[in-house]
Amino acid sequence: MPQLRLILGLCLISLLVSCQSSRYPQGRSVYGDRPGPQAFTTVIVDAGHGGRDSGARARGLVEKQLALDVAKRVRSELWPSFKVVMMRDSDYFVELDNRVNIANRYGNSILVSIHFNYGARRRAGPETYYWRSDSYALARRVQQNLSAVAPYESGNAGLVRRRLRLTRNPALPCILVECGYLTNANEAKLVATSSYRERLAEAIAKAIRDQSQYGDAGMGPIPRPIYAPPSKATDARD
């Protein structure tokens, strides 16, 4: 009888593992259960919003324009050391799911989505979002570099793990960067200057180069993967 219980127990464990494996297949890079990227050759730069979607508007600034400006500056910083793919290079809209599909066409690559933030007037400073474990080190490098550039930080979330369509769904390491709050008077004045946007781009590009050279080294413990379904348009942002 004890032997029968043992056999039944092992069968039950095997069944549970099998079900879990079928739901979350092993090796699915979309779940990020692998080390962070290193020696990658392609950087996909996504300028947030565009076209009919202006993104945040505050203090005479428009997010879609600023995001594209910084994205182009990042491209200039990285090329020709990397192949740089621009998700958009002018003022038109690309559906989020299409952005995912475009990103998935490229191997040995990373995705960096560039945005600007909107919130309470006291909030200031950059925020960097990731979901996959293999995106953590890149996100942390970007956040550290942007924080070193930003003279104002108040009430911002910093480095955030959040399941968004551009941090969860692409089958490659992917992060979303909020370069600062357009609603903060002091930060908005800086963002309005081309020299500050150039510094933002340099900070992002340096983080990308460092990630390619060093991988996860020096970034501390990598968080465990969180197995969750792809993000949908109906999901709450938080």
UniProtKB/TrEMBL annotation:
Region forming the signal peptide: 1-23
**PROSITE patterns given for it?**
PROKAR_LIPOPROTEIN
Enzyme Commission numbers on file: 3.5.1.28
- Annotated catalysed reactions: Hydrolyzes the link between N-acetylmuramoyl residues and L-amino acid residues in certain cell-wall glycopeptides
One function term, GO molecular function aspect: N-acetylmuramoyl-L-alanine amidase activity
- Region annotated Disordered sits at 215-238
Q: Which EC class, in a word?
A: hydrolase
Signal: is it a keyword of this entry? Answer: yes
Q: Name one GO biological process term.
A: peptidoglycan catabolic process
Q: What is this protein called?
A: N-acetylmuramoyl-L-alanine amidase
What is the protein's species of origin?
Prosthecobacter debontii
